[in-house]
Amino acid sequence: MQTLKVLKDELIVILVAAGPVLELRAAIPLGIAMGFTPVQSTILSIIGNLIPVPILLKILKPLFDYLGRTKMFGKIAEWIKQRTLKKSEKVEKYRALGLFLLVAIPVPSTGAWTGCLAAALFNIEFKYAFPAITAGVVVAGLIVFILSNQVVAFM
């Protein structure tokens, strides 16, 4: 029964990290609060944050192209596009390196999901986008790990 609880807790951390808003910035502290070590929490969060990346890189461009042509979702798709483009000047200029930087700095409205959207909007090929986003997620995970450790040590 204890094994099921641990698996359930691991799944919660992974799902929070895989989600589009909180990502690993919230999943790592959540995992620590749930009783995982900072290392366990970071590993689970990085895995969770990377799960949707290949799928998003494949579907976002065609999805946004389609939604942009519909009456119902055209304005929403355009708003998301413009919002992402504002945060992504470096991505346009530096391509994969810019994508890495966008994902690696764990501040609100950056992360793997935003990186995937930026890759789609700037037509960055999967073979460049996926490694850049993966490296960015790992660096962001390490930054949040270090910050979380400082908070835990302080308490």
TrEMBL record:
Q: Name one Pfam family in it.
A: Sm_multidrug_ex
User: Keywords on this record?
Assistant: Membrane, Transmembrane, Transmembrane helix
- Organism in which the protein naturally occurs: Caloranaerobacter azorensis H53214
Q: Which InterPro entries match?
A: Sm_multidrug_ex
| Lineage of the species this protein comes from | Bacteria, Bacillati, Bacillota, Tissierellia, Tissierellales
List the protein's name.
Answer: Ligand-binding protein SH3
Coiled-coil features, chain-numbered ranges: none
Question: Membrane-spanning regions, if any?
Answer: 12-36, 42-60, 96-122, 128-147
Highest taxon listed in the record's lineage? Bacteria
